[in-house]
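Re: beginner question about structure tokens

> Can someone show what the tokenized structure looks like for a real chain? I only ever see the sequence side.

Sure, here's an example I had lying around. Input first:
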Amino acid sequence: MNFVFFAMFLILLIPIYEAWQDEYIWQKMLAFASIATKTSIMILFISVLRDDWMIGVVGVIILSVGNAALMLLAHVIRRMNEL
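And the corresponding structure tokens:
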């Protein structure tokens, strides 16, 4: 089971590296959305292992609301740069 958590953490580092490397704001926002998605999936995985549905609810809220707000912010920043 430790291998699964280590693999999830390594997969989480891929978008962090991409956001650090690229200077285009749209790519950075997509990388951060990917980080939020992977983190919420990890939270859901942990909630299933612990059989704790309250942690699962937090993971679902992050998964559904967090990415929508981040994408809305990316569109606002993109529109402001076009002006």
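Each token stands for a local structural state, so reading them left to right follows the chain. Residues 2-82 form one domain.
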